[in-house]
Design brief:
By secondary structure, the protein is α/β, with parallel strands linked by helices. Helices cover 41% and strands 24% of the residues. The chain contains twelve helices and 16 strands. It starts with 10 loop residues before the first strand and ends with a strand.
């Protein structure tokens, strides 16, 4: 027997059967708002966290989830001492609910007039100049598109994952050294996030044109030891021991280090401290010229590639605007590949 649920008198296709979704009808029809509530609770891992994100009080949210479970005759969430986790049936329901909510969003976008359409998405990215460069160009292309609201957050990989799993971000880009991929893949699976390799590249040593090594075409790690290294100070991965993290972040035996927490300041520091350097993904030529910087490959880094990986909720389909941003990032990546011989994803 085919289940019938309506949404604004428009039929939706889902899975093998036809689903019609409705708001507050008689009988056992579902309330779309309750689907959103359940998905938010699953993402936050607790009723309290979800209530805060939904701007409602906890008792009302608990009551809504209970009514939803009763109407479906299943238990969606198992209560624990630390929050809630989906049951097996609950996870199946949540997977369906996410797809239905996305179809509804696409349906509404399709029938909205241009005047009412608002471009909106949230993305977390590593502190990478090529990504910010691509984003600036992409954002500029939206200037004539009417109303838009974009959350663009530069942060570490762990927070990027949390922003999607708990704060409702639609996508993110995380960075890790290739040898740690099994750990990150396991984490993404546990968080029910999907992943797509965006770029594999060799780290470059970024420095001022006045740096004593700036004239070289290739350098050795030992040549960097007397210099001052700039390091992003919030890089932290729970499953990597502290001593290993130090090896990933820094040159061995490095005595002079400055930890920075904001990407913009790194250019000022590189300019002001001529003997400083920083490990980075390849930087667009325009930025190198603007800040009077050079980037040089290191022989020892050739066997230690890093990866930038695009992540999003499992089953999520990118909107047209999001696809536009991703394509612009890949365009900049391809230009850098041609010059610096990095390793593109294929």
């Amino acid at each position: 027997m085919k289940e019938k649920i309506w949404y604004n008198d428009k039929k939706l296709k889902y899975g093998k059967g036809e689903i019609q979704l409705a708001i507050r009808k008689e009988g056992t029809a579902l309330n779309i708002l309750y689907l959103k509530y359940a998905v938010t609770v699953a993402r936050c891992g607790s009723i309290t966290g979800a209530a805060e994100q939904l701007y409602m009080n906890q008792p009302n949210l608990s009551k809504a989830i209970k009514e939803l479970e009763t109407s479906l005759n299943i238990t969606i969430f198992q209560r624990t001492s630390t929050g809630v986790i989906p049951t097996v049936q609950g996870q199946e329901f949540l997977d369906s609910a996410r797809q239905i909510l996305q179809q509804i969003a696409e349906l509404e976008e399709r029938y909205q007039s241009e005047e009412k359409r608002k471009i909106a998405f949230s993305v977390s990215v590593p502190r990478a100049s090529y990504i910010t460069y691509a984003f600036a160009d992409f954002a500029n292309s939206l200037s004539s598109s009417g109303e838009f609201e974009i959350n663009f957050m530069e942060t570490n990989s762990m927070e990027a994952i949390q922003n999607i799993s708990r704060k409702g971000y639609s996508m993110g880009i995380i960075r890790y050294q290739s040898e740690y991929e099994p750990y990150f893949q396991k984490m993404l699976q546990e968080k029910r996030l999907q992943a797509q390799l965006l770029w594999e590249f060799e780290y470059q040593a970024l420095m001022s044109v006045r740096n004593p090594l700036a004239h070289k075409s290739r350098i050795q790690l030992e040549e960097l030891v007397p210099l001052t290294e700039l390091i992003h100070g919030d890089w932290d991965v729970p499953f990597i021991p502290a001593d290993e993290q130090e090896q990933v972040l820094s040159v061995p035996n490095q005595k002079k280090k400055i930890y920075v927490y904001e990407r913009g300041s790194q250019f000022d520091l590189l300019q002001s401290i001529p003997d400083s350097f920083m490990w980075v993904s390849p930087v667009p030529e325009e930025l190198l010229q603007r800040y009077q910087l050079v980037q040089i490959g290191c022989s020892e880094m050739a066997g230690r590639p890093f990866r930038d990986v695009l992540i999003s909720p499992q089953g999520y389909r990118f909107s047209t605007v999001e696809k536009g941003f991703i394509q612009r990032v890949m365009d900049v990546r391809d230009i850098l590949n041609q010059k610096y011989g990095a390793l593109p994803w294929s």
